[in-house]
Amino acid sequence: MKSVNQEAVEQDPQQLHEDLHDIWGNPKGLKALTIVNHTTLGLRFMITGMVFFLIGGILAMLVRTQLAMPDQDFMSPEIYNQVTTMHGTVMMFLFAIPMLEGLAIYLIPKMIGARDLVCPRLTSLGYFCYLFGGIILTSSLIIEMAPSSGWFMYTPLSSKEFAPDLGSDFWLLGITFVEISALSAGVELVVSILRTRTQGMALHKMPLFAWYILAMALMIVVGFPPLILGSVLLELERAVGMPFFQIAGGGDPVLWQHLFWLFGHPEVYIIFLPAAGIISTLIPVFAGRPIVGYGWVVAAITIMGFISFGLWVHHMFTIGIPQLAQAFFSAASMLVAVPTAIQVFVWIATLWLGKPKMKLPMLWVMGFLIIFVCGGLTGVMLALVPFNWQVHDTHFVVAHMHYVLVGGMFFPLIAGLYYWLPLFSGRMPSENLGRWGFWLTFLGFNGTFLIMHWTGLLGMPRRIYTYEAGSGWEIFNLLSSISSFVLSAGIAMVLLDIALHFRFGKPAKHNPWNADTLEWANTMPPSAYNFVSLPNVETRHPLWDDPNLPHTMAEGKHSLAVASHGRREMWGTDPISGKVREIIHLPGNSWWPLFAAAALAVVCLSLLTKVYALAGVFVMIAGIFLLRWSWENGAHPKAAPDAGVKPGDPPLHSRTMDGPGLWAMGVFLIANGSFYLSYLFGWFYLWTVSPEWQMPETPPLSLILMGAAGVAVLAGCGVMEKLVRGLRQQRDAGLGAGFYLAAALGALQVGLTGWALWQAELAPTQTSHDAVMLVGLVYALFHGGLAVILTVLQGLRVGYGYVGAHAPFEPGVVTLLWRYNVVTFGLLIAALAVLPRVLGG
Questions:
Q1: 8 Å CB contact between 247 and 767
Q2: Cα-based distances in Å from 139 to 135, 171, 562, 605
Q3: Which bin fits 633, alpha (ψ -120 to 50), beta or left (φ > 0)?
Q4: How far is C-alpha 356 from the chain's CA centre?
Q5: Within this chain, do residues 188 and 64 fall inside the same structural domain, yes or no?
Q6: Which strand (E) or helix (H) includes residue 381?
Q7: Are 754 and 655 in the same domain?
Q8: What is the DSSP string of 586-610?
Q9: What is the number of other CB atoms lying within 10 angstroms of the CB of residue 248?
Q10: Which side of the chain, N or C, has fewer Cβ within a 10 Å radius?
Q11: Taking 60 as the threshold, does the pLDDT of residue 128 lie above it?
């Protein structure tokens, strides 16, 4: 029997191409909205991101026009505040992260030798959530109801007292909607990188870009939930009066800053890491040699990811935190310079030891190195507490942020776009237009923001809409504004070059840059299925070590070169070694992601207009769409029309106990756990810090009822564990009845928790204590109810023959949720019912 490494398919390559296209091809017309292919969705993310970038750029030009001269009345103070808030919001939330995620969605499967991402419908849901959320948020500009409290939405400026209109609500609901998209992509990318690399591509052999994206995606999974929690709490405060951030009710406005910057500072590195991944990909190609210190770069990526979560108070040095905390976070802020410096020295060493070719992408790489190093130096300056006190909330901070974010993200992004343009289009970019675009952008950028360091040192505050003549800032602001228009001209030149090249660019030869990574083994532009056959890759530079590899892959001389079964399939591999474990079969095009995202958009609009009954109805409709989506999985005929595999091939993932859905649920629960830990942080923070926190003399939660509910969920989890153990031993007798028993125990937990909530007689609009307690109990009720519904569905699927000893995969996924519920409910009992009795107020 042949192994997967020895598999060779003797058939007509052209016919194989056509058969695969029939399975993977994208539909036209209205059905294009059902596409789940990563290539199309990655392009949609990037094109939509560029549209939002143009909107954010126009807003930036309005700001610079207003500040060009003193005593300007080009914009009123109210409109100026809306414009500055939306500029930062659009650039950070609607451009930077989605654009980089879109690039990763497009490239990662091609780089790791896969045919698609592992949860393609999740990618589609993420795109539509991003699109609808962005439209809702930016529409506030058109009706002059945009948020005006700054892109960081500090309370109490964003609270009902100082922002009574809908601007803050647009921000909170729109951003939360967009965050769903970011988390979806984060989960998708983590699981895809770990579990779908082509056979032989061990973790230490995968491209550095994949390492950077893996770190970015994990940071999104952990870093975004605190902001989602903060947004939910602030919207509850604004909508129904729960005083989470109001001192008089026992809240604290500083809690918002903690929750925001727990997300906000890691986001700087979430943006930087993919950009650095582009640099680490391009420099070896144009230097003509492997990167120096691959292991050092991987270590630097890992260290940077961990350290970035210990820096959030770096933004809060002036709010009155203890000096010991200031010293700790100052040291941590300087420490992060070490892994950054490692990467910079690796890049320089690779260029020094190679023979660099100064093609157009390398011009942008060199611009990045200059600008980012300057931004890093001012970052070290801001990490020093005394200096930070002097320049906090001045234009110095604005300039530093743009050097790090624009210089550290935009320049590598354009370098990457020029580098991968031939892959997108099959044509080469124009060197002449591209160089004009670079120099105008580089000079305009430095002219705009280098000068802003000086105005900041002269004391010009940020977020002021005008200033008086004679302040000493006039000439510098004028030069900065003129330079910003030069910068805009450079960006316009770049966009013109990219647009024209699709029609007038010279046809590119195969692998025009002589690159080393697998995406260049594709056709240009690539097919919907990426590769006809999936190779065995045991080197970091497959195209350098085997230049003929693209041809043998296209001829079907490697693995999984078969289409007769009608499935979309690729390898499922070991996360460490890259050894093949199973064949992953993917779902095809689907309307469900669009329907679910549209229902959630109606929820968002209903909350904005305060039609809460309609919001509740569409929450249920969105849930129905999502559950209907989940029904077409595993052994369902639409998921695997033919369950057979060729002799010698591993089984389908739905016939194993360790498919990618199990990993997706695990990563999702990490994000969920980050949200929950942020909630517990808020509970203990207000308990210990808020000056008006009121702890009732008698704890309102019944310990008996909560304890009984805890026993019920523990028993339900025990039943699920027993059923999964039986499936591992190929036993499924009584499986359906077991699921219904577990669901009944889960329903008992929900009922007892609801009873405890009813008996507590909380007053959530009067004290933050009761408000926080209510949020925790609703969280437990939601997760308990979700576990019950999913478990009942498992019982139904047993009856339909979709789950059993022949298809044991799904119960393990649901059991992960039960385990999570046991842990979180136990922590909830300890935090809300036990500790208040032990410690008192």
A1: no
A2: 6, 11, 48, 12
A3: beta
A4: 34
A5: yes
A6: helix 360-383
A7: no
A8: E----SHHHHHHHHHHHHHHHHHTT
A9: 10
A10: N
A11: yes
- How many domains are there within the chain? 2
Structural Rg of the chain based on CA atoms: 27
Q: Report DSSP state, residue 148.
A: -
Cα–Cα distance for residue pair 325/328, rounded to 1 Å:
5
**Which runs of E-coded beta strand occur in 171-222?**
none
Residue indicated by tokens 């031939």: 422
Measured CA to CA in angstroms, residue 607 lies from 240, 614, 732 at distances of 11, 9, 45
DSSP assignment string, 507-519: BPPSSTT---SGG
Strand partners, 652: 583
Res 788 pLDDT > 60: yes
The two structure tokens encoding residue 741: 């028993």
Query: How crowded is residue 548: how many other Cβ atoms within 10 Å of its Cβ?
Result: 8
Q: What is the pLDDT of residues 161-190, one digit of tens each?
A: 999 999 999 999 999 999 999 999 999 999
* Same domain (yes/no): 749, 649: no
* Residues 536-586 pLDDT 10s: 999 999 999 999 999 999 999 999 988 878 889 999 999 999 999 999 999
Dist. CA 556–CA 16, nearest whole Å: 8
What does the alpha-carbon distance between residue 137 and residue 124 come to, in Å, rounded to a whole number? 20
> Phi and psi of 764, rounded to 5°?
-70, -15
Q: Where are the alpha helices (DSSP H) in 761-808?
A: 768-800
- Please indicate whether residue 840 or residue 781 has the higher confidence score (pLDDT): 781
pLDDT of residue 641: 61
pLDDT at 5: 40
> What average pLDDT score do residues 660-664 get?
94
Alpha-carbon dihedral 44, 49, 52, 57, rounded to 10 degrees: -140
Tokens of 804: 């059993």
Q: Is residue 685 part of a domain?
A: no
784 domain residue, yes or no: yes
Residue 658 sits in the same domain as residue 727: no
Answer yes or no: do 571 and 653 share one domain: yes
| Structural domain boundaries, residue 827 | 694-840
> Residue 301 and residue 311: Cα distance in Å, rounded?
16
CA distance 261 to 314: 9
pLDDT exceeds cutoff 70 at 329: yes
Please indicate, yes or no, whether residues 662 and 749 belong to a single structural domain of this protein: no
Phi, psi of 75 (to 5 degrees): -130, 150
For residues 734 and 666, state if they share a domain: no
The CA-atom distances, in angstroms, between 256 and each of 158, 226, 235 are 10, 10, 12
> What is the spatial distance between Cα 354 and Cα 371, in angstroms, rounded to a whole number?
23
State the residue for tokens 């990219």: 498
Please list the residues that pair with 585 across neighbouring strands.
569
The alpha-helical segments, DSSP class H, found in 288-320 are: 294-307
How many CB atoms neighbour CB 754 within 10 A? 18
pLDDT at position 747: 98
> How many Cα atoms sit within 13 Å of 217 on the Cβ side?
26
In terms of domains, do 288 and 168 share one? Answer: yes
Tokens of 642: 């033919």
- The answer to whether 639 and 587 are in contact (CB under 8 A) is yes
Report yes or no on 340 lying in a domain.
yes
* CATH number of the domain that residue 737 is part of: 1.20.120.80
Distance CA 723, CA 556 (A): 42
Euclidean distance between CA atoms 666 and 31, whole angstroms = 32
Q: Which residue carries 């009720």 as its tokens?
A: 781
Using DSSP's 3-state secondary structure scheme, residue 582 falls into: strand
Question: Is 423 strand, coil or helix?
Answer: helix
Nearest to 5 by CA among 201, 194, 204: 201
